[in-house]
Design a protein that fits this description.
The chain is built from six helices and six strands; from the N terminus they run βαβαβαβββααα. It has 203 residues and is α/β, with parallel strands linked by helices. The longest helix is centred in the C-terminal third of the chain and has 19 residues. Bound molecules: inosine 5'-triphosphate.
Amino acid sequence: MKIYLVTGNKHKVGEISALAGNDWTIVPITSVINNKIEIEEKGDSFLQNALIKVESFKHLKIPLIADDSGLEIDALGGFPGIKSARFMDGYPYTERMEELLTRLESEENRKARFKCAAVYYHPTGVVLAAEGVVEGTIAFEIRGARGFGYDPIFVPEGYNMTFGELGEEVKSTISHRATAFKKLFSLLRLFFSSTNTTGHHRS
Ligand code: ITT
């Protein structure tokens, strides 16, 4: 079954497609709409922003998924958090990461986490949601070029390397997005086993 992913981030398409396995075909929403997606993420949580993303396209009456995610750094009071995409918007990620490292220069508390809220919207109006977190620390320098965004400065708990060095093999097992979407796809299997494909309960 096809599910349309509301995102403008091609890295998310790759990661979520891999997590969906053979059960669902993940189609970027950008392949069925003509314009670039511009959604104002005005919620005050990852979950609210993920809901805003699917709600923006519910008029299409097709199955939708979306995620909202970000990096919370304890020593910066949780910043950039839900502002992760908008922080120094337009600047390359190397510059954004350098800026975060500068702000943390003499800071010993490197604790941080990536969070992800994943949502599914069914054309009947049913919404399923799941969240995922990966704890870790902020490295002292940018390391690795794999992944995207802040991956090269995030060292997940239990590892010495950054997500930028570890890449998809590790990210697909322990990341915030992997946890959230594994839960979401389990909920979806349950949903489809108790309903027919139009979302109505089997009698
Ligand atoms: P869409 O909203 O179009 O899906 P986006 O990149 O703007 O794409 P978000 O609004 O969810 O995505 O913002 C998340 C930001 O947090 C993202 O741009 C990265 O800077 C960061 N981020 C989230 N997940 C990440 C990951 O797995 N690795 C590195 N950085 C990540």
